[in-house]
Fold this sequence. Notes:
- With about 450 residues, chain A is an alpha+beta fold.
- Helices cover about 20% and strands about 40% of the residues of chain A.
- In chain A, the strands form 4 sheets. In chain A, strands 3-2-1-4-5-6 form a 6-stranded antiparallel sheet.
- In chain A, helix 1 runs parallel beside helix 2 and helix 3 (about 120-135) runs parallel beside helix 4.
- Chain A starts with a helix and ends with a strand.
- Helix content of chain B is about 20%, strand content about 40%.
- Chain B has helices spanning about 1-15, 70-85, 105, 115-130, 200-210, 230-240, 245-250, 310-315, 350, 405, and strands spanning about 15-35, 35-55, 55-65, 100, 135-155, 160-175, 180-190, 220-225, 270, 295-300, 300-305, 325, 335, 340, 355-365, 370, 375-385, 390-400, 410-415, 420, 425, 430-439.
- In chain B, strands 1, 2, 3, 4, 5, 6 and 7 form a 7-stranded mixed sheet that branches.
- Strand 3 of chain A pairs parallel with strand 2 of chain B, so a sheet runs across the interface.
Amino acid sequence: MLDTPIARSVIDHALSLGADFAELFIERNQVNSISTLSSEVQAVQSGIDFGIGVRIVYGTKVLYGYTNRTENDELCRIVTELSAKDLRDPETSSASFDFSVPGDIHLAERTLTKGSEVESKVEFLLKADRTARAASNMISQTRGGCLQREQSVEIFTSEGLHASDIRNYIRASLSAIASNGSEQATGGFNDGGLVGWEIQEAIDAEKTGGEAARQALVNLSAKACPSGRMPVVIGPGFGGVIFHEACGHLLETTSVAKKASVFHDKMGELIANPVVNAVDDGTMAKEWGSINIDDEGMPTQRTQLIKDGQLTSFLADRIGAEQTGYVRTGSGRRQSYKFAPASRMRNTFIEPGEAELDDMIASIDRGIYASHMGGGSVQPGTGEFNFAVTEGYYVEKGKVQYPVKAATLISTGPAVLKEISMVGRDFALACGMCGSVSGAVPTTVGQPSLKVDDILVGGNA
Amino acid sequence: MEVAERVLQWVTEAGATGDLMIAEGSSLSLKARDGELEEHKVSSSQVFGIRVIKDDKAGVAYSEAADTAALRLMVDQALVNASYARTDTNEQIPDTEITLATDDALLAPTDDVTVEEKIDAVLRLERELAARDKVTNVPYNGVSDVTAAQRIFSTAGLNAVSRVRACFSQAAALVEEGDKNVMEGWGQGARRFDELDIDHIVDTAHANCLALLYGEAIPSGHYDVIFDTQCQPTMFSTFSMMFSGKAAKDGINPMRDKIGEAIGDPRLDLFDSPLMDDGFGYALFDDEGSPTARTALIAGGNLETFIHNSATAAHFGVQTTGNGARSPRSTLEVQLHQLEIGAGDADDDAVTTGEYLELTDLTGTHSGANAVAGDFSFGASGFLCRDGERIQPVRNITVAGNFYEMLNKIELIGKTRRWDMNRHAFMPPIRFSDVAISG
Lengths: 461, 439
């Protein structure tokens, strides 16, 4: 996407100004989105983003700029402007680019380059809409969406790295509103992956619509949630957001290097109940959070974060590795050329255990079964996190009693990891978007059902 | 202008109408760590976005490339996209042949602050906060200076340009003592960099940390609650869909059938007030070129109107309220400019009489709220207060309820109104009763 002589010229210019390291990140992002509402197509949108991010490093200082233009003069102007306060004699020279091509384990077939396939996607979304509406006459509205994008990236560095990758993302969703005349409730379902529109062969429009309607109707019948400290069973799949928020962000060198993570000095220590094993894996074929290479050009990998409760690895990008001394893990990611890369999660999950969901429920005298989770957030410095329950049930004397609404779970990462006492077999993954210092990136969360013995439930009862 | 004329000419030749939005921006952001500059980021960007309407169907497309071929492709994509859209006779390009421009002296003022001085500012911010009592780390800090310009041209003859400048500085400190720790911060926005008060940010961030360091949960129960000047606008913004004419048109606004009905306490008056020029949401015209005005959304507890663009207004048979919103990448939406709540009749002392919770921090507002149902459950911290005095810091609690029901659980509305940190909301304190707290 960028002529090699221009890349060479810009990098040489940066090194001539005394930089230790220089990198160009070129991105072309093609987007197509379709939305439906009231059983009709509401909008079809499309566009192309293109830009170049320039990163220059002096010691541990990161200088970053970006532009939409590809001319040598413009890119060198940015380098000159960024380096103005750090000029010094050249300390290093650039290496020749290595144009070897790594393999692609996420090959997509029905890509945006080949066509946006609007009719087929509309057919899928309207079928999901019909299924949801057919579930009950209390389904008053649905909203569908299908977002497909094709991100092409190319990276040049002063260390001779040249890498490129094409990432095809797709995600389809339906949300439903159920109404009984006086109250409204919502439900939703989505699925996606690092693939093309061939995903329609793996995801089911009827399941999408049926699940959205089922959850909306459950929530319409929900009662106010009890509050206070109690045991909670968290369901599989998106329930993994608890680990993502409670622990994953705290293991990124972005916060570890600043000592802004409560786990920054806990390497090798027991930080979780020994039943907990956790992984961040960028290599899973065609999963939403996977990549071939990270946004610094390093092949991604599988990283064991916690083994039998013991902290075994952080997630490190280039700068994070330099600052902490831990090895890079192929975790440098960014939303777009507008962001410098930072250590970020990919497909992050708690590995399956031996327990059964029924046994977890049966072990609760008074608590909550959070079958579906929403999003959340964490403050890395203290480990305090929160996340929302989108479908939950009150449990008493080992039996599920009734659905509850408007519940949030809050705790701290160190505390909740030690409160996980049972880990199930029913492992599942779910896709989401994760926001942090380098923007919003696709990440997968996952886990089997698990039981947390004691956590604060924020309810309205 | 030349580019815009060429692009709109292609639209016209295709038998369509349309408007072209060109957004340009430049920014500087700086972060410090351990007394050194950690990040220095500069940017310049440009994006074109076209909306076309053909046969009463709207389509949008955008491009970050400005060459002729890319812009031609953008127009062609928008026309294709429009062909799939549903027919909507209400969405048309407004027949507005007018030239509009914002006041740069007011909204995008310049100053003489050099890059070196901005670097000095962020280094001083981190250094001085790190030197404060019990502060062990200042992991999050920074200053930024952003200038953005937006131009809108339409086939009807609209030529509108707006420029804004926003400078911001913020810092969050980690304070530790024994086994207790807390991270709190503060920030400030301004239109000129030399209006940022670094000393005030350091003082406030440190004071916020110390005040909450020894916070503990309180027993679960129902409390009177006052959200502070940051949290109260957050609550209203989280549920602002209740004022959206677009959401009402789409059938997802829970208030869609309640125009003219009582939805809140009779003392509650709420406005969208784009013409208060000391707020950062100040706007003389919206993204369709329609003039803005102060709009009463709730008066005496009654829902008066929704906010509208030209399409939602036509759908409901009313006039646009000047709340049309669009970016180069988006379809036509609506958005609030600045929320204003009318002054109440209670003195400050009366609002803070007896025992209540002052909530100063809410977490999970992006995930713990359901604007369709009104239900919410957030993490929270703040202070248990009595007669205006903070008697106990409170952390690790949740606040939950139904926001639409809370509008009818107002005990008192204060007289004194204040801007929030981002200067997008101007409100008096409101004391809500019977709010569920879990501890």
